[in-house]
Amino acid sequence: MTISKSADNVHDLIARRRRERDRIPRHAVPDSGVPVSSTQERIWFGEMFNPGFGFYHVPATLRLRGPLDAGALDRALCEVIRRHEILRSTVEEVDGMPVQRVGDAPGSVLRSVDLGDEADAEAEAARMAADDILAPFDLRHGPLWRALLLRLGPDDHVLVLTFHHIVFDDPSFGIVGREVEALYTGAATGTGSGTGGGAGSGTGGGPASLPDLDLQYTDFSVWQRERLRTEEVRSRLVDYWRRTLDGVPRLLDLPSDRPRPPHRRRAGRFHRSRLSGDVVAAVRAVARDEGTTPFTVLLAAYGVLLSRYAGQADIVTAVPAAGRIRPELEALVGCFINIICLRLDLRGEPTFRELLRRVRHASVEGHDHEEMPFEELVRELHPQRPQSHTPLFQAGLGVRDNDGVFLNLPGVRASEFVPDVEVSHFDLMVDFSVDGDGMAGLWGYNDDLFDPATVEVLAEQFALLVAKACGHPDLPVGDLSLPPAPRLPEPGIGGAEGPAAILAERVRLAPGSPAVTTHAGTSSAGTSSAGTSSAVTLTYAELDARAETLAPAVRRGAEPPAADSPDPAVWRYAHLKADVLDGRTAGAGAAPIADLATRIGLGVADTVLTFAPPASGAFADAMLLALLHGAHLVTAPPEAARDAGRLKALVADATVVHAPPAAWRLLLQDGLPADRPFTALCDAATTPPGLARELAAATPTWTLYGEHWAAAHRVDPLAEPRRGVPLGEPLAGTPIEVVDRAGRPGATGVPGEIHVGGAATGDRGRTLPDGSMELLGRFDRMFTVGGFRVDTDELARSLAGRPGVAEAAVDVRHDRLAAYVAGEGIDPKELTAHLPEYQVPGSVTVLDSLPRTAGGHIAHEELPSPDAPGDGGGHVPIEGGTEEAVAGIWRELLGVEEIGASDGFLDLGGHSLTLARLSLRYEVAFGVEVELPDLLRHATVREQAALLDERRAQAGLGGEGAAS
Hints:
Blueprint: H1 3-21, E1 34-35, H2 38-49, E2 57-65, H3 70-83, E3 89-94, E4 97-102, E5 110-114, H4 121-134, E6 145-153, E7 156-164, H5 171-187, H6 217-228, H7 231-244, E8 269-275, H8 277-289, H9 294-310, E9 314-321, E10 338-345, H10 352-368, H11 374-381, E11 395-400, E12 413-416, E13 428-435, E14 438-445, H12 452-471, H13 499-509, E15 514-519, E16 535-539, H14 540-556, H15 567-577, H16 586-600, E17 607-610, H17 617-627, E18 632-635, H18 644-652, E19 656-658, H19 661-670, E20 679-683, H20 689-696, E21 701-705, E22 711-714, E23 725-730, E24 736-739, E25 752-756, E26 759-767, E27 773-778, E28 782-785, E29 788-791, H21 792-800, E30 805-813, E31 816-823, E32 843-847, H22 881-894, H23 912-926, H24 932-937, H25 941-954
Parallel strand pairs: 5-6, 11-13, 15-18, 17-18, 17-19, 19-20, 20-21, 31-32
Antiparallel strand pairs: 1-4, 2-7, 2-12, 3-4, 6-7, 8-14, 9-10, 13-14, 15-16, 21-22, 22-23, 23-27, 24-25, 25-26, 26-27, 28-29, 30-31
Helix pairs in contact: 3-5, 8-9, 8-12, 9-10, 9-12, 14-15, 22-23, 22-25
């Protein structure tokens, strides 16, 4: 024997003894039950928080063609359930802790329904399968599985197996399949058993025997709890994950189609895709070259796609791990699967090959530390516990090496049967599986956030990105381009006649018609005591004559006159005549406005009222809109938008009104006059979409995009709210596109900078699958606050849509969000029901009006500084008996002495189990039941005390409760 061989034997002996020493021991299950595993605890808490969605149902639906012995199948399933105690278990809460109890084995499990008489048996089978999969489970009483056999014909069946995730995971199907196959063969009689009779049919004896199981799931759950309490194990895992995830962004900010709601409202949907055989072959070739797996290649490409959409180079993705960390667990049915949070580092513009090596390293290290349950990881890292999305990650990817067919019975051909069931727990989770020589992709997504068309494009782009990355692995990931988005057809520019010629013709045809009426501001000497401003009206001839006198000064570049005199309008008109309108060419200057006039039906009989400042591009466009078409332009001072009396007087005679959000809010409060219809024009960037829809329900409404109007959108009052602002169609002759950071035409759905006429705007937008564009915000108004990226313009639009808020702005002050509103104001705590937690401002400052620049934009630098967090915003004393009782319970559960009325339970170290105990303590102390979702939505001492008082009043208990 050589020395090296002897050493190998020594190492083998040491390894074998270590395995024997660490082997999971057997434990008797007492009547009181045993604690659930960490993964079960997470699922239990999730089910309590989101009951009825079916998030935690694990289904499999197979089409079985051939002579099936239903009785043998039923007996085989019964034996599997008898063998695996977890399938006979239930989960209930005892003293605030979920425990599992093992029940008796069933005598029959397979429900059978004959659909042979149905006109469309296959459609009815799909409907019944979907209903059975989504039907709720009773965790406390069980059973936590269902088996349904639908008979479509003599040799045609659909088998529907549904398990609750708390007792089952996807790898468990392989175990069940193998055991059922062995048991079915022994249980079948071979005589007349292919008729597809009901469950229990057949005359054969008992099922074949299988070796007894060495362990049960409860042995694992007890062992896991004890092992994770071991200092050596826990510190090793915690140290690794704390170091690995330190400083990660708290939210993957994918550009969703709709705003993220404060709470999950829908169950999600699926999109199915496919990677071709050629693409999969290229994936495998790159994996071989780099000594890694196809999964790692797909994960790296997925990281590139997510990075493009989110604009983030530091991404956390979820990867499912089997969780069967010991060989003795491989034969057990149960819920072992865990979530690993892998950090994908795309910083420094690596090549795809370099990124692949980074991802391989992260994956290997992550799987080496996969023993850390996700719920335990969340407790240790203590990130903000949001109700609107999962902590630490929002997107994930998994790969299976099978096609979903886990059951092969003799003489029966099995294939996947897909009912119309769509349940997705995460924002975006992709699952790939073998599909012939290619791979099938199942894209589960949160349809609170995403449209089906958006996810369809994502799947197509992913396939293209994988193919390009594997074909050119040494390209920088930023050069892995995607096809440019489709563009709407551009309308023709029309005639090349310039504004000056058109205006001259208007003067010739109607010299005495009113052209411009200017109302002085409130500070003007012409303001009457009643608050109605004096007005100066110029006819087309008078306006043209005055402009002629200003022409020399205009050419010299002289400063325009004061804004509260009629001369600014004359000054602008002089510029129009000189065809020097802020860089617009003569033909292009008139064509877009002519296009808008055609869309809204503007003519010589119309009066256009604008509140735009004279120095702004919008004022120039409003003037063009009116004067090029022989209409009457009326200008109003900006402050009139906040004076109800002056506002109504100004609007009374207008047929087209271009006004800011504050004016529309004020007009809508009293109702628009039905006898004096007008067309409303709004600024797309500043008008809250909700306000625009409300206005559109009362009068035709258009939103206009750009400092100079470049696109127009007719607002649909019934349209579903979207996160972005629709830009509508470009006005004639105005090229608009979204470009990426390299200046290339942007891909569908991927955010980039909006360019108008080839010039950068600083606006962030994207092109939708139909070729239309959305405004997402400003690049210079995006901030990271508390680890979350927030578009403060988007948030300001959301706040401005709230009742009592005429207009709003949001800044970041003292490392927190600071809101500024004009109107009645708003309580930040009320916003928790409408906004995700990370978007709720830390302060709200009420102003008479928001300061604005000469161009009409909010002057953020002039907004006052709110009180610093320490200036009166720190510890809030406990008040009242209920608050003191609540604080006392918190002190016991959390071991924290200093608790204020505004402190949050999770912020002080609470987690799912302590939250469950809190619910139980409240029930005992106050005599009312409070569900877990309510405790999360009412997070502070003061909010929970108020909730308890309200529940006691509803129950007729009255008074304040006292902790016992």
